[in-house]
What does this fold into?
Amino acid sequence: MSERQLVAGNIAVAMGALAAGCRHYFGYPITPQSDIPAYMSAELRKLGGTFIQAESEIASINMLLGASACGFRAMTSSSSPGISLKQEGISYMAGSELPGLIVNICRSGPGLGGIDASQADYFQSVKTGGHGGYRTIVVAPASVQEMYDLTILSFDLSDRYRMPALLLADSLVGQMKEALELKPYTLPSDLPAKEWAVTGKLWRSDQRIVKSLYLGEGELEQHNWKLWRRAEELKEKEQRSEGKYLDDAKLIVTGFGSAARIAKTAVEMAREAGMQVGFLRPITLFPFPEKAFAEATVSCKQLLCVELSTGQMVEDVRLSVARDAEVAFYGRPPGTGSLPTPEELFAQIQKHYGKGA
Amino acid sequence: MTHDVFMTGFGGQGVLMIGNLLAYAGILEGKNVSYYPSYGVEKRGGAANCMVMVSDAEIGSPVIGAPSAGIILNQASYDLNIARFKPGAFCLLNSSLIDEGALKRDDLATVRLPLNEMALELGDARLLNMIAVGCYAASCQSVSLDALKGALKKVLPERNHRFIPLNIQAIDLGAAQINKG
It folds into this structure.
């Protein structure tokens, strides 16, 4: 066990990427994630890696595509408007079956919006913001340790399923500091070799082509079904969530990332007040932890979903719960200084508790 | 047991520095900690706040509506935040810059110290934050003074380690204000 350090969430992402063997970073600065490129620019130089502050977000996502096509672990990071610009590249990566990490330290919108913590990029991340119908892995850390751990997991899943991975967080988790324990990383031994990577033909006899253009008869249809099968396998095997107090719960509070963090304290307040309130937090947003929600709502029929938006994940919660479960929603779209407090969320729990009984 | 403290002042007073220091001290004592900063875009003079939690248990929310302890270093921060504190909360006020006036609360465990003058007397106006955090730690005992002093090495950049003895003096001076009482 390594010594625990006091580290900001954004830095933990960068440290996790380096631990996972990422040596290539491409990005363009934007608040509130610029700590990531700042850290990478200093550390990658020491490690003999590549750091490029590109001329734009669009350039940097395409550099990521290129590095990934060559078989390297590589990443980019940005914040909401910058992530919108990257969508075309993400679609091309998905179409080309390329792994790679895209970090979104989400700020508020729509449009230029503001810089406050927001969760309004859920739809864009989970339902995919680019064209053509594809899926990406989406993880949602709620602590500094998870910023580190889930960055590493994203690289592994992304390589395994050959699809881009998105890490979705905001300035609360990104700029907060907590104790971080560095864990030694070893590449999973069952990760398939990148036999598709374009590395120069040299002694090989096979020709490798990374592309997303399929013009042959029936070729593109087959390609789409292949991508679909991979996403289905991901759904089957990789759902992750955190549950607490679910066994006797009469009301389950759910949310992801920073909202879940605040809600967790509200749940503890309810328990102290003798209320049977449970907590269920998706860690992977795609695949959405449908099984955990289905299981939890066999006995508990009342849920409260909390988000820093007008309501997006709540739609997936409603699709995942038992038919007779009721899902209430409480949202706080961002504005300066407007993070909800645990006390405020506790009041919401009191409002809904016992209604479904 | 979870200790939360809200620290607030203007940029340059060292609020974020002592927030980091307290959080690191908690780590040195094997506790769970969180440090959540919020500050204006100005390098100096804008509002600077942070919330620190130190706990034996897992920490949920890093922000809380009604804090149970506070360090308030200037008038604007006092006016903006004093109503938030939980009844009975420990509150250290920098009386050099704060006039409680009409907003005065009688239901808090208030300690008033002229931090600016105390820091100058010690030799440097910038020691104000260390006096404040020493006083807070001695009163609320979320971390030991030893851990606080040990964390200086972790939080201050190498080039400033020569100032550690003076900072330790300031922490002790702050603590003495509680212990003498």
